Each structure stands twice: as C-alpha cells, then as structure tokens.
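A reminder from the course coordinator: this example appears on the midterm review sheet, so study it carefully.

Given structure:
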C-alpha cells in the first residue's frame, strides 16, 4: 500500500481524512496500532486519553486529536482533560525532577507545543477559564529551561488564543437582532415596510446575499457547539452532563432560518394586488433555484418552508397565476420522504464538487441545518452511551468527528460574492408578521373560502384589531 498520507493544516478534517493508512509503528507503543485505521471499536477513556499524550517519539494523528477532543467532552470537562494531559506529560517526561534530561525534552517539547497549538486553534472556547491558561503556562514553564524558543512559542500561542476568543465574543452580540414579529394592524404603513423587491429585484443577487448571511452566521459555530448543545438537554443524564453550554450559536442560527421563512411569507402576503403577490412568489422561486445552484441548501429550505406555510399555500387564486413547475422541482429536491433522501443525494453531490473545486465559488456547501442538527443529535446519543464494559464507543466518535469535521470545512469557505449591506440589513431587520398576522394578511388578500377560515378570521380581527 502507498505511503501514509500526512494531514496538512489546511485539510484539518476533510471527509476522507479519518480513514488514514496506519502510521509508522511507534517504538513499543501498541506498535503500529493507529487508532484511526482499523480503530478499536471501543476503548476505555483512560486509554484514549493516553493516546492523546505525545512522547519524545510519538505524536497523535491530527484527525485523532480532533476526534477525541470533540467527543470526549461528553464524558469529561475540557478543563479536566487538559489537566490530566498536562499531568501525564509531567509524569512521563519526569518534568518534576530537579534535573531534566535535556536531549529527551528537546525531542518532546516541540510535540507538546504542537498539541497545545492544535487544541487552542480548534477549540479556543475550551480555554475561556483562567485555570486552563494556568495548566499551559505551568507545563511549558517546566520545559522552558531546555530551549529558549519554547517560551516564545507559548507567548505566540496565547496571543493567537486571546485574539480568537475576542473575535468569538464580538460575533455573538451582533447576532441578537430585534426580532419580535409584529402583529398585524391593517397593512403596515409604507414607512414600516419597504418591500424586498424594491431593494433587490434580481433573484441571482438575492441568492448571493443570502449566502453571505448564512456564512456570516455559520462562522460563529464552533465544532464543540454540536456536542455541547445536547449535553444540556438532560438526555444524557446517565453520563452526568458536566457543563452548561456557554454559546447559543446553534440556536441563533436556527432562529435565523425561522426568520427567513417568516420573511418570505410576509413578503408574499403583504401586497394588496394578486398580480403583485404572484410576482413575489415567482421571484422567490427563482431565488430558491439560485440558492440550489450555489449550494446554499439552508436558504433554499427556508424559502420552500415559507412558501408552504398555510397562510401562503391557501392563496389559490394567486398560485393560479404562478408558473409552478419550477417550484415543484425544488420541493421534490427537499422532500422529507425517505429521511430526505433526495436532499441527501444533492448534498453529497455538492460536497463532492466542493472537494475538487478550485474557486471558492465552487466550494460553497451550506447544509440544511435543522437536519444536520438532528443527525448529529443521534450521533451524540450513541457516543454518550458507554458500552456494558464501561468502554467508550470510539467508532461512534469517528462518525461524529467525520460529520462535524466536514461541516467545519464548509463553514470556513470565504464568501466569494460582494456583500451589499443594504440588502443584508433588510434581511436581518425588515419587520415580519407573527403567524396570526400572516393569516390576517392572507384573509384580506383572498377572503376565507370555508367555515373554519371564516371563524378564524373573525376571532383574529377581534383579538388583534380590537386592541388597536
């Protein structure tokens, strides 16, 4: 079999990088047993931690580091894990002895710094607490006398870490928009609502701006969010979930999806004239198709969901004026049947294209997020269940890392389109109707055509319009 592939920093976890050929045997250390190739399907947590700890002649594979750091947080707090790793380094390299074996430490030092660098780069939020920095400075302080470069590298590592943490905390604040849906009080005056088509009437342009919005929001989601989002929800009580989730990035992103659904429905139900409503529908169908072509499946799904909301789908006379063939094709792509098998096929196609693409334009893959979350939720469940012998299910760790790693690769893509702030601002801030508001707008556009709708219309008018 060919040479072992090495993982460069740029392809940290591409989908294929978790089935690496075995690395060169390590002297006396489970010789040649690469944990990733023909990995044991399970191991004790202690064994897995031991595999993370570098020695003078062993360094864990990059993909293993990512896999273990990601999933181990289901069982041990990242801070505790760091403390154990540092403790094992000190013990095994005898760094607590008054006299160090300089030659040996010089072989070990760079590997330790490399591990700490990868950890702080990939999971910076693991280092938010002061105590974690204490572990780093302590262990590096012990090897520092053997080579003056070590303190220097440590300094750079901490600077980069602070920079990364600062960026992360900035990001989250800007995501909290004033997002209360407005209830419907007759048609909002034009001062409240300029319509979307007045700001952007080119579907191609809007699809590009939606892609901007998606990637801006995705940027704030770290790999650990996918594991921590679930630890809270008491589903894993058996493993004593061990920390609260500091970041609501996943929730903020799901909120954005919901906002987009409601924005689409609001824009369609607003216009008083049927011809105008039909034009808005056709516009969104074209936008959705452009999103599909770009690989932006999340916006695509939000647009389809918005057009399928009952206040919109009940507008029969408006739909009659729309060329719906294009819409049905898109709807078929996103059909939930067979656990979304059409969408999954399209996603694999986009993922494959992304791997071979040369331009960032061809690299864009924005998955339908709620479904990704659901898949990852089930993987977390199976990761968190220890096997009867108390072992951890490493096979499931690999699956989880593969899915999350692939997503992390996608979210890092630079958006190749120029941003138009007036359009993205509108997408983030334009008023949207609540569900009741949508029904009222819809009934005013096309009056109720059955008893149930008539009653609903009456009660909505008295409850909402009665208050004004």
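Designed residues:
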């Amino acid at each position: 079999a060919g040479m072992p592939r090495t993982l460069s920093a740029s392809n940290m976890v591409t989908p294929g990088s978790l089935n690496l050929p075995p690395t060169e045997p390590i002297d006396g250390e489970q010789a040649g047993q690469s944990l990733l190739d023909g990995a044991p399907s399970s191991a004790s947590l202690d064994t897995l931690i031991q595999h993370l700890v570098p020695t003078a002649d062993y360094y864990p594979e990059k993909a293993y580091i990512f896999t273990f750091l990601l999933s181990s947080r289901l069982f041990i707090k990242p801070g505790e894990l760091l403390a154990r790793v540092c403790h094992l380094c000190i013990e095994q390299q005898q760094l607590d002895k008054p006299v160090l074996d300089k030659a040996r430490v010089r072989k070990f030092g760079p590997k330790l710094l490399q591990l700490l660098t990868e950890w702080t780069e990939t999971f910076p939020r693991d280092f938010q607490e002061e105590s974690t920095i204490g572990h780093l400075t302590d262990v590096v302080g012990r090897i520092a006398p053997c080579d003056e470069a070590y303190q220097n590298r440590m300094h750079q590592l901490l600077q980069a870490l602070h920079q990364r943490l600062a960026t992360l905390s900035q990001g989250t604040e800007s995501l909290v928009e004033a997002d209360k849906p407005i209830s419907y009080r007759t048609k909002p005056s034009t001062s409240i609502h300029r319509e979307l088509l007045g700001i952007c009437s080119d579907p191609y342009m809007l699809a590009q701006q939606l892609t901007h919005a998606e990637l801006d929001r995705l940027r704030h989601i770290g790999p650990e969010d996918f594991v921590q989002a679930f630890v809270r929800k008491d589903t894993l009580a058996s493993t004593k979930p061990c920390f609260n989730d500091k970041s609501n990035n996943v929730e903020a992103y799901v909120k954005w999806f919901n906002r987009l659904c409601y924005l689409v429905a609001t824009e369609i139900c607003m216009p008083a004239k049927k011809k105008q409503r039909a034009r808005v529908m056709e516009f969104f169908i074209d936008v959705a198709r452009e999103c599909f072509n770009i690989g932006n499946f999340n916006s695509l799904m939000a647009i389809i969901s918005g057009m399928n909301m009952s206040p919109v789908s009940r507008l029969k006379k408006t739909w009659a004026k729309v060329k719906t063939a294009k819409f049905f094709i898109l709807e078929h792509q996103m059909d939930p049947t067979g656990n979304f098998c059409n969408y999954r096929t399209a996603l694999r196609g986009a993922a494959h294209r992304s791997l071979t693409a040369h331009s960032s334009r061809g690299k864009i893959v924005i998955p339908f997020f709620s479904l990704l979350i659901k898949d990852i939720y089930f993987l977390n469940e199976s990761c968190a269940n220890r096997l009867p012998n108390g072992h951890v299910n490493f096979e499931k760790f690999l699956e989880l890392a593969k899915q999350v790693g692939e997503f992390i690769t996608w979210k890092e893509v630079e958006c190749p389109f120029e941003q138009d702030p007036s359009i993205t601002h509108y997408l983030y801030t334009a008023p949207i109707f609540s569900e009741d508001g949508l029904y009222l707008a819809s009934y005013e556009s096309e009056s109720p055509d059955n008893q149930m709708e008539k009653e609903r219309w009456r009660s909505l008018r008295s409850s909402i319009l009665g208050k004004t």
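The chain has 22 helices and two strands. The beta strands are 42-43, 392-393.
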